[in-house]
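User: Hi! I'm a student and our assignment asks us to look at how structure tokens line up with a sequence. Could you show me two examples?

Assistant: Happy to help. In each example below, the sequence comes first and the structure tokens follow. Example one:
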Amino acid sequence: MGDVRNQSQAWAIEIEDVEGEYKAPQSASSYLQTLRSGSELSKSKEAIERNVFTGSIGQVKPRTGMFAASGTIACEFRAASTEGGAPEFDKLIKSALGGKRTLATGATLAGSTTSVLKVTDASLWKSGDIVMIKVAGKFHMSPIILVNETDDELTLLVPLADAPEAGTVISAATVYHAAEVGHDPLSITRYYEKKVRQYMPGTRVTSMALSQFATGQTPILTFGLGGLSFEQDLHTQAHNPSYSEVLPPIALSACVFMDGVKTHVNEVSFSLENTLAYKTSTCAPNGRIASTIASRRVTGTLNPYMPDDSVGNFQKFKTDQSFSLFFSARLPKSTEGEIENVIAVYIPNCTITEISDTDADGLIQESISFAASLGANASPEIFVATI
């Protein structure tokens, strides 16, 4: 007999075929490379006190009720190994947001301008999708803010420096977006020493938060979890995990845009909170038989430097004027000006809820807290793309 070592962990995620029915890891690619700190599973049982006389001031043995299963998974905020592919945390972010689209590769431009792209079939994209235009030596990132299917045109939030030549390629992408449905139930598995198995069936993602998107740091994505039940047993791990070898980005050359205008900040973050509603039944062994996402809320922060010729951010705060927020991180290619393994975030409608002045080594930063809201026709509050 030996002791279980902390570094021996292996985590796996599977989308359940039937909610609440545990699905074990199916292959080596089912595993997710988590951070050593910030990833955990928690279990507890409700204590039900018995209010009876015993002739003593002591407590009688209580009964225990439903399991409460929860956890967190923290991972590096990094893209896939192939252009436009899904990242390792694909199942988690899909469960958190609900919506997912895969944009075809190899689309080429015709007679475009700096802000309007001419394509063969504009119906392949939706407003909010994030694209990379692969101009030689000047790769360019931007969300799409308008899709004109009649004229096959895509309008960009962030314009290019120059109109792209005909034949310029738009990259492939996987885009995740907030949706009303599609929040897949998951089975979460953690192995210790390849033989002690813990698993949480019927899991939903209760939160998703981006942190450490700060100058010179490695951004981190953390998922909060809520499950229907929890089990632990001795079971041999069937696979050796196959982890992505893509390096995580560093928040350098990772520009932030407010309303499409490049804005110098030292840090930006967001948090999505999903409220779970549990369906319970006296017939269920653990009381809970299903869950659903009842509501969601997206908030965030950023800290732009205060200019001496504008009070624009205060005016946004004072008048409840919405602004868009777009930022991305990437790895540089060997050719200057070209990038790969990009991961990007677009929040179209942000409202400032709090603003304060902060001393940053003698410079004043505006510490802004914001809340995201639905757009026209209930368009999604947030988009995350891997390119």
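Example two works the same way, sequence first and then tokens:
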Amino acid sequence: MICLSRNYRIYWASGVFWALGLMVYFLVYNLYLLDLGFDEAFVGQVSAAFTIGNLAITLPTGWLLNRFGMKRVILASAFLTGLTFLGRVIFVSPLLLESLAFANGVSIGAWIVATPPFITESTTPQVRSWAFSLWYGTSIGMGVLAGLLVGLYSKHPGVLMHPGALGNLAEKKALLFGSSSITLTAIPVLLFLTEIRPDGRVSSCANTLVPKTKHPVVIQSGEFVRRMLVVLALWGLFIGSFPPFFNVFFYRQFHQSLEGIGWIFSFSQLCQVSAVLCMPALVSYLGRSRAIPTTQFLSALVLPLLVTVPRAV
């Protein structure tokens, strides 16, 4: 029987709301910018500002976690995420939109950096790998639900407002406000977290503390680190340039409606969940050192084929 700590269960529940709000928001937001009259170049600038915010907070988050504790940092991240989401819908000034995108990148980046140590400190080694799989599988799975919700809402906008009351811009704005509210729902859930003390961690099945065991830290060689950084940079450049524009691509290239883009996004996330579930078997068959580059190579082959596809469906 797999038994997870109360802290982990609370964090997982908050992550469901957080991930669902994020998925809906980023699925719709770029199309919202196009409806406001901005072009693809500005969409790229906003995406770049968001990414820079992610990078800028990566190292400081470690200091913040040590200084203020995980619970405070995660709560602040959730609050700032919801706040910047709302600001990115309320304001239309290009400078403000880019500044809020940067702040949004900071808030989400801090949450992402805080998640692995929080899960590690909230679980025992016996269930830790399963806990990580559950967390990331659920986060990706929320993308499936987000795509379905956006598609259904686009088809039946009268669920929240009187039928016919929404134009394209108002429809997307309503979805963005709704997703921001979903993200903010994570905050009252997070209030039930127990701050993890520096002298122990929460055990698997209760809130009792288990003394930390000290393991020797193995420092990889400088050559290995340099090679790994080159690989990560190239991979990030390749894969990171697609997600911010996928909805714009299907909207411009294939003239897909919001409903169609929602269904496409949902299907893509379902494929990701399936891949995550299959990865342990692939690692067992090929080994970690061959499984990772194999999947990256296959992705590098398949993604450019989108350019040659004549139609979306």
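Here is something you could point out in your write-up. The mean pLDDT is 78.
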